[in-house]
Amino acid sequence: xxxxxxxxxxxxxxxxxxxxxxxxxxxxxxxxxxxxxxxxxxxxxxxxxxxxxxxxxxxxxxxxxxxxxx
Length: 70
Description:
The chain is mostly helical. The chain has helices at 5-31, 36-62. The protein has 2 helices and no strands.
């Protein structure tokens, strides 16, 4: 059974967000400084990616296309 790109990408994004959060916490514990701009930019990027995937899925559903593609 072939998995769609989106179904592989979503768990990957969640995984890298967890890794990123752990890395930021480690840096914060070591330096006492939070990289606020980096954190905001990172989560804006990953949220945007997930939002675009959801928009693609919604558009395909409205047009009556296959739902298992995305």
